[in-house]
């Protein structure tokens, strides 16, 4: 043990374990989290070379292999508690993401919640056995948060009882979905529904995109990887262009809105239903903000206790950099912020679970406030943490610039949260709308 | 804001707009001049800071709403008025969220039983709140919640709080309980053996698989033999 760190721990006036229990929500939660971590970290199947030393193709391959093992081991261990699944995945992934992420986080939940029973009976077994590997294609090359602007069309043909899915322009090409480039063989595509000559807005359709035997793209489907990004090297974020692809009427997700064989459209009971999913995902992101900042602070503060630089009084040994007030002023407010955001993350998760109960009883009254709060907090925390990680990196001097510090990986993976799942400025304006209306 | 202005009572996290709406109304003449609202910040009192964040948020919400009204009075459309007030609207949302975070942090403290932990986390909460005030002092000054001399006091108070935190800094990050494999960082290793491991890590870089990289034979050697 480095003597400086040893002395820091000797001199502390608090017992970290007590705080760990508070952060986990109880001693039993801490014990169980550590048990799951050990399950993964002691598993040879998850050992691999440092991803920083691999090419992009090799990183994708390692991630694919790990994903497949991760999801099958989750099933083998019978881990079913959503929080424990989340722990298991985050330990397996470390600071990275996986090509199957969208299949499990979006495709399967959408099939479960937006399909008729007979549709579910057909697709869920295929999806859970990974014969169908899905993704969720919403964002287009020139259309992001403002989903009403999406251009992809789904036109109903009553003569064949099929939908014709089409990407009418270059700007309508689906762009970004994780797993779309090389992994998925189906996609839930969000498209403008046209039937009987009228547009009924956005609806979701299950579209086969690769042959389930050969994995070759199907005729009329142009699909591929969008190329290297700032981070997410392990994920094949992809593009998808559809040239008048025909799918059966039954491939439209019809639990709420429906199209009858003759083309008649039936409206959904309430359009608030998609709010719930957005609130859930943005609540998760608030928690992710706390984690990214807590990790960054751990690295920067421990290293600031180990690192000795220049001198405070001439002739004396170089002090620990953590003794410099300027260094403290970089890191301690961020440390406080990491705690603050951890507690906000807990609050959002608890509130969401409570309100979900209300929603299931048909009480939507608190959803607008929670939706406004989730949008605002997603933006507020991700912007703050995005800047905070960079401060932590610079607080480590030149070594912070090396990939070995872990900070570049944390940064390039986390910074995407400022633009995905709703661009932050738009999120802030959504909250403002609620505030002014209130 | 509009519902409160129209006399409706709000519930939930925006309910602060109910009372702060009165608080921010111009006082009738003859009573305190509007500019001299009472300063509510007490540097050592977290609850007073929560109150100040609340009033700052309410003030910025009102500023945004008034901007919208002014734009509309210039017979702008709703959409144009909204777009031309974006800066105020985003500031209002930011302030609202900041208030929520400070409020939840303060509320969390009341659940903590261990006195040593309570004391350290209270110090962190105070630092978070004061640092936020210092970083957004313009808002607090404009809302009359802060005086210029208080700004200097806040800076001094932040320094004192940092010195208080210093002995427990490492313990506070240890408490996040990230295993080395989760951090994946030579700088942040639990045992602090940074430099030895940085060296090991560097030596295993693919570029070092051979003592002489193949590109030397392809490019450098031919170049040097020509010179």
List keywords for this structure.
heterodimer; A: 438 residues; alpha+beta; 6-stranded mixed sheet; 3-stranded antiparallel sheet; 49% helix; 13% strand; elongated; B: 227 residues; mainly alpha; 12 helices; 66% helix; extended
Low-confidence stretches of chain B: 24-36
Q: Please report the distance between the alpha carbons of the first and last residues of chain B.
A: 78 Å
Helical segment tally of chain B?
12
What is the rounded Rg of chain A?
A: 24 Å
* Overall body shape of chain A: elongated
Q: What is the number of strand segments of chain B? A: 0
Distance between the termini of chain A: 56 Å
| Share of residues in helices of chain A | 40-55%
What order do the helices and strands come in, and which of them pair?
The complex is a heterodimer of chains A (438) and B (227).
Chain A: H1 3-11, H2 16-24, H3 27-41, H4 56-77, H5 82-93, H6 101-114, H7 117-128, E1 134-137, E2 153-157, E3 162-166, E4 174-175, E5 186-195, E6 198-208, E7 221-225, E8 238-242, E9 245-248, E10 258-259, E11 265-266, H8 273-306, H9 325-360, H10 367-395, H11 407-414, H12 424-438
Parallel strand pairs in A: 1-5, 2-5
Antiparallel strand pairs in A: 2-3, 3-9, 4-8, 5-6, 7-8, 10-11
Helix pairs in contact in A: 2-3, 3-5, 4-5, 6-7, 8-9, 8-10, 8-11, 9-10, 10-11, 10-12
Chain B: H1 1-5, H2 16-24, H3 46-73, H4 78-83, H5 86-109, H6 115-135, H7 137-142, H8 148-165, H9 169-174, H10 180-183, H11 194-203, H12 214-226
Helix pairs in contact in B: 2-3, 3-5, 3-6, 5-6, 6-8
């Amino acid at each position: 043990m480095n003597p400086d760190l040893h002395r820091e721990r000797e001199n502390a006036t608090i017992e970290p374990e007590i705080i760990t229990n508070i952060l986990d929500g109880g001693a039993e939660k801490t014990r169980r989290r550590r048990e799951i971590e050990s399950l993964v970290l002691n598993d040879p199947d998850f050992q691999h070379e440092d991803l920083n030393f691999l090419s992009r193709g090799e990183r994708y391959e390692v991630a694919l292999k790990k994903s497949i093992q991760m999801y099958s081991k989750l099933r083998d261990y019978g881990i079913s508690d959503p929080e424990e699944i989340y722990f298991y995945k985050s330990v397996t992934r470390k600071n990275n993401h996986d090509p199957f992420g969208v299949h499990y986080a979006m495709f399967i939940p959408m099939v479960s919640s937006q399909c008729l029973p007979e549709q579910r009976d057909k697709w869920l077994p295929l999806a859970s056995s990974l014969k169908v590997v899905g993704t969720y294609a919403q964002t287009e090359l020139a259309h992001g948060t403002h989903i009403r602007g999406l251009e992809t069309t789904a036109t109903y043909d009553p003569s064949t009882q099929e939908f014709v899915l089409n990407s009418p322009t270059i700007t309508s090409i689906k762009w970004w979905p994780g797993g779309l480039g090389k992994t998925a063989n189906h996609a839930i595509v969000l498209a403008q529904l046209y039937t009987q000559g009228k547009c009924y807005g956005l609806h979701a359709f299950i579209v086969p995109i690769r042959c389930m035997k050969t994995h070759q793209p199907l005729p009329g489907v142009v699909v591929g990887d969008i190329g290297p990004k700032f981070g997410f090297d392990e994920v094949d974020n992809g593009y998808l262009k559809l040239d008048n692809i025909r799918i059966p009427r039954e491939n439209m997700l019809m639990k709420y809105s429906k199209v009858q064989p003759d083309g008649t459209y039936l409206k959904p009971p309430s359009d608030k239903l998609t709010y719930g999913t957005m609130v859930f995902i943005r609540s998760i992101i608030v928690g992710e903000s706390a984690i990214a900042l807590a990790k960054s602070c751990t690295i920067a503060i421990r290293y600031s206790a180990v690192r000795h630089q220049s001198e405070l009084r001439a002739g004396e040994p170089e002090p620990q950099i953590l003794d410099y007030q300027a260094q403290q002023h970089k890191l301690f407010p961020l440390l406080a912020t990491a705690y603050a955001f951890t507690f906000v993350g807990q609050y959002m998760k608890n509130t969401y679970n409570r309100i979900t109960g209300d929603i299931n009883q048909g009480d939507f009254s608190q959803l607008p406030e929670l939706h406004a709060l989730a949008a605002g907090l997603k933006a507020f925390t991700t912007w703050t943490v995005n800047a905070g990680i960079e401060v932590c990196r610079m607080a480590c001097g030149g070594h912070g610039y090396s990939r070995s510090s872990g900070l570049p990986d944390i940064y390039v993976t986390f910074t995407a949260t400022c633009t995905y799942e709703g661009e932050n400025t738009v999120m802030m304006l959504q909250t403002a709308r609620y505030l002014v209306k209130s | 804001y509009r519902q409160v202005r129209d006399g409706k009572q709000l519930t939930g996290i925006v309910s602060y707009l109910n009372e702060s709406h009165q608080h921010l109304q111009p006082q009738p003449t003859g009573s305190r001049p509007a500019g001299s609202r009472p300063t509510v910040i007490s540097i050592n009192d977290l609850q007073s800071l929560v109150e100040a964040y609340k009033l700052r948020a309410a003030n910025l919400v009102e500023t945004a709403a008034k901007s919208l009204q002014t734009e509309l009075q210039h017979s702008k459309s709703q959409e144009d008025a909204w777009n031309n007030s974006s800066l105020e609207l985003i500031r209002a949302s930011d302030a609202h969220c900041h208030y929520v975070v400070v409020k939840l942090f303060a509320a969390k403290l009341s659940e903590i039983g261990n006195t040593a932990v309570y004391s350290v986390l209270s110090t962190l909460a105070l630092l978070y709140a004061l640092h936020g005030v210092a970083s957004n002092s313009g808002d607090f000054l404009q809302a009359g919640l802060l005086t210029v001399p208080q700004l200097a006091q806040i800076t001094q108070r932040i320094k004192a709080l940092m010195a208080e935190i210093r002995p427990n800094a490492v313990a506070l990050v240890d408490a996040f309980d990230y295993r080395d494999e989760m951090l994946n960082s030579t700088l942040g290793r639990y045992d602090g053996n940074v430099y030895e491991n940085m060296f090991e890590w560097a030596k295993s870089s693919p570029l070092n698989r051979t003592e002489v990289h193949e590109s030397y034979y392809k490019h450098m050697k031919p170049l040097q033999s020509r010179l």
